[in-house]
Amino acid sequence: MPSYRDARAAEAAVAAALVAAAVRLPGAIRDSFWQDEVASARIIVEPTVGAMLGRVRATEATPPLWYALGWVLHELGLTPYGYRLFGLLFGGLLAVATWFLARRIVAPPGAAAATAIVVLGYQFVDHGRELRAYELYALLAVVFALALLRALERPEWRRLVALALVAAGGCLTNYFFVLFLACGLAWAWAARAPRRVAAAALAGFALFLPWLPAALSQYDHHRFSWIGHFRLSSVLSAYWLLVAHNEPATAVLHRLAPYAALALVLVAAAVLARRDGEARLVALLAVGPVAIAAVVWAAGPEVFDPRNVIGAGPFAAIAVASLLVRLPVRAAAPLAAAGLGLLAYGYVSSERTPPTDFEGIAHALVREGWSPRTPIVLYDGNFFAFRGPLEWYLPGRPDLTLGRPTDRACGGAFAVVAGDRHAQLLAGRLRWADASETTHVTTARLPAPVHLPARRLRAMHVITASRGNAACVRPLPESRLTAVS
Fold first, then answer.
1. For the segment 409-436, what is each residue's pLDDT rounded down to a tens digit?
2. Is 76 helix (H, G, I), strand (E, B) or coil?
3. Are residues 372 and 322 in the same domain?
4. Residue 258: which domain range?
5. What is the pTM for the complete model shown?
6. 373 and 317 in a common domain
7. Spacing of C-alpha 149 from chain mean position
8. Which backbone phi and psi does 438 adopt, to 5 degrees?
9. Rounded distance, CA 93 to CA 112, Å?
10. Do 319 and 410 belong together in one domain?
């Protein structure tokens, strides 16, 4: 029979999973799809496996497992919105996996502190409620560590097969999982693990190799180029941005808080690495993948972003918790309470400012009479951020592109103003009426005739349908679109 201690550990894990799902649920239900989620949804609804894989190769910078699972579920009747809720499941399982891994390193209070970071940290919450694979990637990173430890403890065939499957699943979910696989194999080699343990992990990597030509094609299409050139400050802020929405705005804390978070993780990992076995593995996985990704970025490939190293977050949380429990109770208790309070405050603050409601904007445009023949004039907004969601939510899912005004007046047009900085000013200049506000975006119909500026203004973009558009705008082909933000 299970012991009382085992039962209490299981209860704690279930409680953590339920809290993780609960904090992710409001956004999963409330938020409309944003740009990257629309890209995922379009892949999932492709009619065939070949079309699905082809679209992943052509439009994404990640392997296909997440989309393949979504495609199968869609074929079974699940909508992309329903598949989005799997992020809640993976978030709950991530909390459970973090709890059980942490319990191998620290006592229950420390394990609870580490799990709380994963449950409430910004990146984990944000990606646990969207139609993207990052929460699954973080889960597989922790499950890989557990599978590696279990295979090392008793290298029987069931555990070796489980290790191979987890390694394959991780490599086929996110390319950065390969860094965790490499660090895990390095630790296993240093720990003189049986060769069949490393062979099992490499067998999982071998299942990824058929996708390698597609991965190289994705890289050739510059799917990571939006990250930009190497910035040391972004690397130094990575751990902070795993748990916080932004860097602090105040001059003193703007750099101090992120750098203090980095220093805390490095010190905690160094202390943890002094211990043998699983503690050293956790320390290596907390720091190694982030350091390697930073070196690769510095060498040229534009690949570093906090969400790409989200898998290191649970290990960093465990390392910090292991350092916390070494302190006297009088010091550890208030520090843990303050940390939990900051996490809760960060979660509540992020919930108070919901993201752009693209679905509501599309509905407002339709209510005012939008059709493909009426261009949309976007002020103070990123064209690419608005294009995909509007394509998804507008009737008929039209292909939208940038429009260049011709010498003709438009019989009608719509204004979409991101933020309220210029809304009142534009209302007077453009003589609009019956404007409606959705989150922080104002929409309004412009009275005819509408004379669009012949030259694109810095803060203005004309969005038009690629086909069936009005004669007052000339749609640009996709090959002509450049980074206009």
1. 888 888 888 866 665 556 555 666 667 7
2. coil
3. no
4. 4-352
5. 0.92
6. no
7. 27
8. -125, 115
9. 15
10. no
